[in-house]
Amino acid sequence: xxxxxxxxxxxxxxxxxxxxxxxxxxxxxxxxxxxxxxxxxxxxxxxxxxxxxxxxxxxxxxxxxxxxxxxxxxxxxxxxxxxxxxxxxxxxxxxxxxxxxxxxxxxxxxxxxxxxxxxxxxxxxxxxxxxxxxxxxxxxxxxxxxxxxxxxxxxxxxxxxxxxxxxxxxxxxxxxxxxxxxxxxxxxxxxxxxxxxxxxxxxxxxxxxxxxxxxxxxxxxxxxxxxxxxxxxxxxxxxxxxxxxxxxxxxxxxxxxxxxxxxxxxxxxxxxxxxxxxxxxxxxx
Length: 285
Ligand code: R5P
What we know:
The protein is built from eight helices and 15 strands.
């Protein structure tokens, strides 16, 4: 087996390789003078089983994934791991004339020797149906739950910022025997949301707000301000995918967040929980 990490998931690929007692395959990623990308796998992969790991956080990341897939044409079979799949939030037509971007992206991930695709905490699992190959969504929320327990929090409460992650947070809380609650969120614009003011039992308690992803930080900042008003002690924000775009980190700190807890599906300084164990487990199945 060969483990190939794309440019956006190099550290994660190394952790997956280590979990399988292997070394990652050396691959080159460069740009031509006109800024086009170029990839080259520096080892012979003919007849091998190849695992490609590449998050598609940016358009360039997506191009690199398609290039790597193409470069693996001589492999016997390919498994693709997309730890964070960009464009997955546009998973339906909200207005006439719109593209279903999640479908467009999923359809493009194809090759004759592609055996299986793994994603992690996709925005909606139904996006799996758009892939032309067998696909499975892995769940990293239990890793966040384990990390939360290690923080020894004061009468902790898990909070879902919206109904989209209600089930995920409820399951995490059940596994940990913790209390949980959920906010009611409405999105007004890409970086602006409103939440129905809700009285939660948070006086003097530590709270972890858990979401599948943090992008602009708008959702979390709004939730933190309500929890603060209700007298919460420390408020942590946790997510699987730390996209953390624009000034999200400043925004969250300014809102009074104690810490940002995240996994390495997107490789950021906040990614202190690795999803490598669940990928290794899936590959060994
Ligand atoms: C939306 O439904 C997602 O679960 C997240 O709540 C959202 O994408 C977070 O985005 P932002 O950080 O920009 O509010």
